[in-house]
Amino acid sequence: MNTHHETILNVPGMSCQSCVRHIHAALGELDGVAAVEVRLSDGKALVRHDPDRATVNHLIAALREAGYESSLAAAA
Question: Residue 65 and residue 5: Cα distance in Å, rounded?
């Protein structure tokens, strides 16, 4: 059984590819995160993760620590 979920986070304030790399790194290093796609064009990050190991709160906290505010856009 696949335990991964996809969560989309709004990440306003991204302005360049450096932001994309920082956000990708901040989310990608979390235990339980399998994949990260950061979309500068619409200010969103798609995260495929195990919700038992990397909760939405963990994702948002990691972005806050990296200097970015975020909020839940959708979960699949």
Answer: 23
